[in-house]
Write a structure and sequence with these properties.
Layout: E1 6-12, H1 16-27, E2 32-35, E3 51-52, H2 62-85, E4 96-99, H3 103-119, E5 125-128, E6 143-146, E7 150-151, H4 154-167, E8 171-173, E9 180-181, E10 185-188, E11 191-200, H5 205-209, E12 219-230, E13 238-241, E14 244-248, E15 254-257, H6 272-284, E16 292-304, E17 310-313, E18 320-324, H7 330-345, H8 358-362
Parallel strand pairs: 1-2, 1-11, 2-8, 4-13, 11-18
Antiparallel strand pairs: 3-7, 4-6, 5-6, 9-10, 10-11, 12-15, 12-16, 13-14, 14-15, 17-18
Bound molecules: flavin-adenine dinucleotide.
């Protein structure tokens, strides 16, 4: 199928990064086509965890500031999206508790209270003695509590955002794999489409897709597995302990996540590592013991080589942009990434931290 229509922007990939770019471009009255090899939200973004947690409030720098502003503006962003789409994203600012297991961390946590006052404004970082969700054995030095962290339900958020985009006249084409691209055209077995700007937001598969533009491997995929359980903790804070998240959702379910696997063969299967994770989560939070398992899920996180998101105009091109590398924090920053990429396209100043830029990843 070949058409003669040309768009302002074509976006390759309908995950949270691609959808966020589409939403922002559509708000700026740009005509947008989003294509996905599979379905909307069928990559890493179609998951079930959705923690939106800040960096620690000390040693402040531009990367922390960018994420802080994103986590602040997320509340209004998702409210606007839900209002337009009439679909819940599951967003909620529920806070977070982190058990403390070393005296050193306890002292550090106490000292960070004043950093939060300085850098987090109205949001609080505190140390509490205990919490009803966490076993005393798991938190011998108490817990860090913050009222800044939020949660979202990733797959629902993608559908809410896609619907908002459609209502803003964004066009979608699913089951449309892009096999090649140049400055203004994307190609596939289905034909080709043209646009003034192209945004590559193709998740971990995108790293392979763009490799001819880079002298080094610019990123890879890190697998994660998570489990959805039937226990209603929706008014409780999320828990983060030793790499494990327990995230209560607004629909009365709770997610345990995630494994972090550099070596994997099967992207979407789950295995014994998830069961070990669930067991460790139950030791921390006995309330979830015996909760019915609703669903197991696995996906591949896009991790750029220097761990930070990879955002900007591709080298040797005037019109191809990257919006990739969300890794473990994609949902907290995606809407700001959408704004930054749209700013780049429109040649406006943007607030991207240096560590997100392509130049930084090539250093
Ligand atoms: C288990 C797990 C838990 C996670 N937990 C959290 C969390 O708690 N908080 C958080 O913020 N983040 C979390 N993440 C990370 C988050 O999911 C990612 O940062 C985010 O989803 C990345 O979004 P993306 O749009 O870049 O990629 P994706 O969602 O993977 O989207 C890329 C899309 O591009 C499409 N595509 C690829 N190649 C092509 C092609 N050639 N042509 C057309 N389309 C193509 C794919 O089909 C896919 O739909 C987690 C990830 C996993 C796996």
């Amino acid at each position: 199928m070949t058409t003669t229509k040309s768009y302002d922007v074509i976006i390759i990939g309908a995950g949270i990064f691609g959808l966020s770019c589409a939403y922002e471009c559509s708000k700026r009255n740009l005509s947008v086509l989003v294509v996905d090899a599979k379905k909307i939200g069928s990559g890493a973004s179609g998951g079930i965890l959705g923690a939106m947690a800040p960096y620690t409030p000390d040693q402040w720098h531009e990367k922390k500031e960018y994420q802080f502003q994103a986590l602040c503006s997320a509340e209004k962003h998702w409210k606007d999206v839900e209002k337009l789409s009439s679909i819940s994203s599951g967003y909620g600012r529920i806070g977070r508790i982190c058990p403390i297991i070393h005296e050193r961390v306890y002292k550090l946590a106490l000292s960070r209270r004043k950093d939060a006052k300085k850098n987090w404004g109205k949001f609080k970082w505190d140390v509490i003695k205990k919490h009803e969700l966490v076993s005393l054995d798991a938190a011998p030095y108490g817990l860090i509590y913050d009222n800044f962290s939020a949660r979202i339900y990733p797959s629902k958020a993608c559908h809410s955002l896609a619907q908002a985009c459609s209502l803003n006249h964004v066009e979608f084409r699913e089951n449309t794999k892009v096999t090649d691209f140049d400055s203004n055209t994307i190609y596939g077995e289905w034909g080709k489409e043209t646009a003034s700007s192209i945004i590559i937001a193709s998740g971990y598969e995108g790293f392979d897709f763009i490799k001819s533009y880079f002298p080094i491997t610019i990123g890879s995929g890190v697998k994660g597995q998570a489990a959805l359980i039937d226990i209603d903790l929706r008014d409780m804070p999320q828990i983060y302990a030793n790499g494990i998240y327990i995230v209560p959702h607004s629909d009365g379910t709770t997610t345990i996540g995630s494994t972090s696997e550099r070596n994997w063969l099967e992207p979407y299967n789950t295995d014994f590592q998830l069961h070990e994770l669930i067991k460790r989560a139950e030791d921390i939070c006995p309330t979830i013991e015996n909760a019915k398992l609703i669903k197991k899920w696995a996906g591949i996180r896009p991790k750029a080589r220097r761990r930070e998101p990879l955002i900007g105009k591709i080298p040797r091109s005037d019109s191809i942009y990257l919006a990739m590398g969300g890794f473990k924090i994609g949902f907290g920053i995606a809407h700001e990434i959408g704004i930054s990429v749209a700013d780049l396209i429109e040649n406006k100043p943007n607030r991207l931290p240096k560590s997100y830029t392509i130049e930084h990843h090539l250093e």
